[in-house]
Amino acid sequence: MRNSTKLIILTVVAIICILLYGFYDIKGGFDYAFPRRMMRVGAMVITGFAIAYSTVVFQTITHNRILTPSVMGLDSMFEVVQTLIFFFAGSISIWVVNQYLNFAASIVAMVLFALILYRFLFRADKHPIYLLLLIGMILGTFLGSLVSFLQVLIDPVEYLSLQSRLFASFTNIKVELLYISIGILLLAFAYGYRIMGQLDVMSLGRENAINLGINYDRLVLNVLILSSVLIATSTALVGPITFFGLIVANLSYQFLVTYKHSVLILGAGLISVIALVGGQFIVEHIFEMNTTLSVIINFVGGIYFIYLLLKESRAAG
Amino acid sequence: MIEIKGLTKRFGNKPVVEDVSIKIQPGAITSFIGPNGAGKSTLLSMVSRLLDADTGEVLLDKNDVKKWKSDEFAKRVSILKQANFLNVRLTIRELVSFGRYPYSKGRLTIEDEQSVDQAIEYMNLTDMQDKFLDELSGGQKQRAFIAMVIAQDTEYILLDEPLNNLDMKHSVQIMKILRKLVDDLGKTVVIVLHDINFASVYSDNIVALKNGRVVKDGPTNEIINSEALREIYDMNIPVQEQNGCRICVYFNSHS
C-alpha cells in the first residue's frame, strides 16, 4: 500500500471518529451539546497534532525513538510551576485566576527547562542513550519529589483545586486558551513546515547533516524550543499525557515506512486525533465516564513503552 | 584552496592535534597516515567543520571555515565519516538524492536527478538502487555513501577511512574511483588511510601525523621510504618496487 493511500485511510478514520463523537446519542438539545462537543474535538485535534509534531521532531534531533519531551521531564516541569504558584500565591491569586498569566508562566518555565536540558544533552560531544534516560528520570523524580513535598504542605482545599489541574482532561477545556493555543500552534506549524526538509536531512545523523549544509546546533536549539512550546501549550490546555507522544510517533514510524517528516508528522497527527477522539468516545459512552482518557493512555502507553525498550535492547544486543 | 594554520585540539588536557599547519594541493589526492591515535580523523573533522578547533584556523579560499555559510560550504566541501549508522530506512537512491540537498533543498530538479543517476552509475550501484541500505553488505553500503558524496559534487571530497571493513576488491575499486574523480573531474580528495600501501599507490601527497603533530608532509615518493617510515611508525619497513609502485612490506618487520 502506498503512503498516500495510508494517509487517506487515516484521514477517513479520523473524520469518522469526529462525526461519531459529535453526533452520537445527542440528548437534551442539539444546540447545547453540539458546540460543546466540537470545542472538545478542537482541543483534541490541537493537542494531538502538537504532541505528535513535537515528539517526532524531538526524536529526530536526539536520534532516538524512545525519548520524548515528556520522558525527559518536561511534564514534571508543568506540575512544578502549577504547584509553586499554588504554594506561594494560592488558588485565588491572579496567577491562577488569570488564565493567560498562568498559561504564560507554564510555557516560559517549560521552555527554560528545555534550554537547560539542551546544555546537558547536546553540548557535550556524545552521550550514550542510557545516560540521557537516566538524567531525564532523575530530573523527573527530583521534580516529582519537590512537587509532592510542597503539596503536603499546602492547604487541603487548595490541594484539591491544584490536583484538578494536574490531571489531563478533555471534559473541561478552557475556551479562552483554546484560541490562543490555535494561534501558537499555527505559528509553530508555519515555522515547522519550513524546516521539514532540514529535518529529513537531520535523520541521517549529525555528521551527514552538517556535511549537507545544515546549521546543526542552531536547528537543534530551534527545534527544541519549538517542541517545548508545543508540549507546553498542549499541557497547559488539557494537562499532561505522558506516554501519548511516544505511542503515536512510533505507530506512525511502523505504519508509514518513510524518512519524510511531512508524511510522518501528518500520520502521527492523524493517529493522535483517532486515539484521542475515539478514546474519548469510548470513555464517555462505553465506560460512561467511570475512567478518564489519560488513565487509559498512560496504561496502554506504559505497556507499549516497555515493549519498545525490550525490542531496542534485543536489537542492540 | 584549503589551508590549515596552527590547528590545535585538546580532549581534556590531552592534545590530540597540536599546531598543525599544512596546505592541501588542489586537484590531487592527499592521504593522512600515521599510527592509531595520531589525530588523523580529528584533523579531518576540524577541516570539515564537524569539530571546532581550540586554536588555529582552517581557511577555504582564504576565508575561515567557521565564517562560511553552512549551505555554501556544503557545495564546496563534502565529508564522509567512518561510522554511518542510520536510524531511518532508506533505499540507495534516496540516500544518494540527499547529496543534492545543498542545491535543491529537498525538491529535486531534472538536473539533480541526472546527477543522482550519474553518481549511482559511477559507483556501479544502478542495478540495486532501489534496495534498502539495511539489506546491503558493508561494501555496498560504503559505496552508497560515497555515491551520495559524489552526487554532492563538491570540489573537495574528504573521506575518513573509507576502506574500513572492505575487502581487497572493493578497496581497490573505491581507490580507483577516487583516482578517476581527481584525474577526470579535477576534484581534490583528502583521505585518511590505514593501509600504507593504498596511500603509496594511489595518492599524490602524504601527510604523516604522529602524536597530533605533522612529522612528514610532501609528495608520496619522498615519504614512502624506509627512513621516513621509521620516523612515523617506529618500525623498520623495507620498501620494494613492483611495477612502478612502491610497496611497504611491514608484515614481518622488527621494531
From TrEMBL, chain A:
<keyword id="KW-1133">Transmembrane helix</keyword>
<feature type="transmembrane region" description="Helical">
    <location>
        <begin position="237"/>
        <end position="256"/>
    </location>
</feature>
<protein>
    <submittedName>
        <fullName>Iron chelate uptake ABC transporter family permease subunit</fullName>
    </submittedName>
</protein>
<feature type="transmembrane region" description="Helical">
    <location>
        <begin position="103"/>
        <end position="122"/>
    </location>
</feature>
<feature type="transmembrane region" description="Helical">
    <location>
        <begin position="38"/>
        <end position="58"/>
    </location>
</feature>
<feature type="transmembrane region" description="Helical">
    <location>
        <begin position="7"/>
        <end position="26"/>
    </location>
</feature>
<feature type="transmembrane region" description="Helical">
    <location>
        <begin position="129"/>
        <end position="153"/>
    </location>
</feature>
<feature type="transmembrane region" description="Helical">
    <location>
        <begin position="78"/>
        <end position="97"/>
    </location>
</feature>
<feature type="transmembrane region" description="Helical">
    <location>
        <begin position="173"/>
        <end position="193"/>
    </location>
</feature>
<feature type="transmembrane region" description="Helical">
    <location>
        <begin position="289"/>
        <end position="310"/>
    </location>
</feature>
<dbReference type="InterPro" id="IPR037294">
    <property type="entry name" value="ABC_BtuC-like"/>
</dbReference>
<dbReference type="InterPro" id="IPR000522">
    <property type="entry name" value="ABC_transptr_permease_BtuC"/>
</dbReference>
<comment type="similarity">
    <text>Belongs to the binding-protein-dependent transport system permease family. FecCD subfamily.</text>
</comment>
<keyword id="KW-0812">Transmembrane</keyword>
<keyword id="KW-1003">Cell membrane</keyword>
<feature type="transmembrane region" description="Helical">
    <location>
        <begin position="263"/>
        <end position="283"/>
    </location>
</feature>
<keyword id="KW-0472">Membrane</keyword>
<dbReference type="Pfam" id="PF01032">
    <property type="entry name" value="FecCD"/>
</dbReference>
<keyword id="KW-0813">Transport</keyword>
Automatic annotation (TrEMBL), chain B:
<feature type="domain" description="ABC transporter">
    <location>
        <begin position="2"/>
        <end position="236"/>
    </location>
</feature>
<dbReference type="Pfam" id="PF00005">
    <property type="entry name" value="ABC_tran"/>
</dbReference>
<keyword id="KW-0813">Transport</keyword>
<keyword id="KW-0067">ATP-binding</keyword>
<dbReference type="InterPro" id="IPR051535">
    <property type="entry name" value="Siderophore_ABC-ATPase"/>
</dbReference>
<keyword id="KW-1003">Cell membrane</keyword>
<keyword id="KW-0472">Membrane</keyword>
<dbReference type="InterPro" id="IPR027417">
    <property type="entry name" value="P-loop_NTPase"/>
</dbReference>
<dbReference type="InterPro" id="IPR003439">
    <property type="entry name" value="ABC_transporter-like_ATP-bd"/>
</dbReference>
<dbReference type="InterPro" id="IPR017871">
    <property type="entry name" value="ABC_transporter-like_CS"/>
</dbReference>
<dbReference type="InterPro" id="IPR003593">
    <property type="entry name" value="AAA+_ATPase"/>
</dbReference>
<keyword id="KW-0406">Ion transport</keyword>
<protein>
    <submittedName>
        <fullName>ABC transporter ATP-binding protein</fullName>
    </submittedName>
</protein>
<keyword id="KW-0410">Iron transport</keyword>
<keyword id="KW-0547">Nucleotide-binding</keyword>
<keyword id="KW-0408">Iron</keyword>
<dbReference type="GO" id="GO:0005524">
    <property type="term" value="F:ATP binding"/>
</dbReference>
